[in-house]
Amino acid sequence: MIVSLSNSQPTDSFGISSTELPQMVEQTFIFRGDEGNPLLAPRGVWSVGDKLIVADTGQNRVFIWQKIPKNEYEKPDLVLGQLETYETGRNSGHRVSASTLQYPSGIWSDGQKLIIADSWNHRVLIWNTFPTTHGQKADLVLGQPDFESNLPNIKGIGSSPTSQSLNWCYGVFSDGEKLWICDTGNRRILYYEKIPTQSFQKADAVIGKPSFEERDYENHEPIWPYSVRVAPNGQMAVTDTQYYRTLVWNDWQNAFSEPADIIIGQPDFDSNGQNLYSLFPKQNSLNWVYDSFFYKNGIFIADTGNSRLLWFETIPTKNATMADNLIGHENFNIGSENANTRYGTDKQLYWPFSICIVQNQLFVADTGNHRIIIFQIS
Prior knowledge:
The chain has 378 residues and is mainly β. Helix content is 0%, strand content 34%. It has one domain (2-31, 92-377): TolB, C-terminal domain (Neuraminidase, 6 Propeller), CATH 2.120.10.30. The chain is globular and about 55 Å long. Keywords: Repeat.
């Protein structure tokens, strides 16, 4: 369903910007997946070439469309994570294997390799060549010694992390050569100098901890890192959900030994106030932030708890910088629950978890509304 902003109803706010600022969205397209088996709480979205890849998180599967859909409902070309395309159970209702998923979230692909954060199986799956069949087995697994294991930190709850283990891993990112994994439950990011070529491969370095065995944290470290992005110029952004902030390093290589250069959403490392300790959002506050994405010279932040996307035209140079614009509300002081929700949350963005930008197309996993929104942005 394509929505032209000039013709949309006044209550449709999912594509609007602040009424006092230039409108960023030229057109929106709403996509709900397969009409007979639609999306349920998708938490991951990625596009490469003309492909659309969606983590249908609530139903433990990943959908792949070889062409960007043009209709509100379209059947996927491929379904991963289930032994039968119509199944939705955790690990396809069976034991964990190379073909199953449990709460998939982060996605990355260059059109050849495919990498998925299989979060509740505490592992990351890698397909060396892009899948071509339903339920295709992954080629490699990280975080577990084999495809049949899925305990946190290999040995179970309470076990210490290692250079090979994962615990609630939600985000993945690559530049085509290197790989970063948000090992969220271990409060750290694992780094691989090369995309691994062997299962259970050790990480080369860790961000956010002094060693691979540490899990305790200091306030200047990522507390609950959910997403990691690295810009072409080397800047790194980590969405730190539990402290309602996004951490930015001007050079990703400094993240191994130094705190972030800039904090978006908080004035300092010790502050962790939801909406800067305010009941309502502000132009520089965040609430349960889950993703970010570099675009042109700036950055979009998925301010999930406030059901909006914040836009910074340039990467901030000081903490708690005011956003330059937003998508999803008519001003910066409107949050998730407002007058529009009287008509149903589908009139607005509702808990957007994941974003991906290809050229001028902004893909948003509008998780609370069980849909993907594709914005054409300026």
